[in-house]
Amino acid sequence: MPKVRFEPDGIEIDVPVGTSILEASNKAHAQVGSACGGVCACSTCHVYVKQGLDALAPASDREEDIMDKAFDVKSNSRLGCQSKILQDVVVVVEISRESRQAFLDEHPELRAALKQAAGAPR
Ligand code: FES
């Protein structure tokens, strides 16, 4: 069974072959944004695949078009919602800054809790 590790948090989860990185993040409660709900329309699920890139379904033309809207795109950038894991491997993912920001925008209660834990005024 493939394993997905989300960095820098170190969250890991085992998922069935065919699971997308976004689906894995949802199961693992990792902070990957998904403003469009996973239909390849927003780029908020942008992640960097540090290990296991070759085990993912290839990017479609649509994904590459959407990736053009993302910030700080690198050679290992993928949209989490479009990246199905096709092999039994370890996939290591770094959540992009824009994706984590989008996640916190989607979960304001978590943002407030994090600020409170850090001692900042709400
Ligand atoms: S969640 Fe919108 S493109 Fe992936």
Task: Characterize this entry briefly.
The chain has 122 residues and is of the alpha+beta class. Helices cover 30% and strands 20% of the residues.
Would you kindly provide a written description of the structure presented here, covering whatever features stand out?
With 122 residues, this protein is of the alpha+beta class. It has one domain: Roll (Ubiquitin-like (UB roll)). Helix content is 30%, strand content 20%. The protein contains 4 helices and 5 strands, in the order E-E-H-E-H-E-E-H-H. The chain has a 5-stranded mixed β-sheet. Strand 1 and strand 2 form a beta hairpin. The mean pLDDT is 95. FE2/S2 (inorganic) cluster binds next to loops. The site of FE2/S2 (inorganic) cluster has 13 residues, from loops.
What is the topological layout?
Elements lengths: L2 E5 L3 E4 L6 H8 L17 E6 L9 H7 L9 E3 L10 E6 L1 H10 L1 H11 L4
Parallel strand pairs: 1-5
Antiparallel strand pairs: 1-2, 3-4, 3-5
The structure holds FE2/S2 (inorganic) cluster (FES).
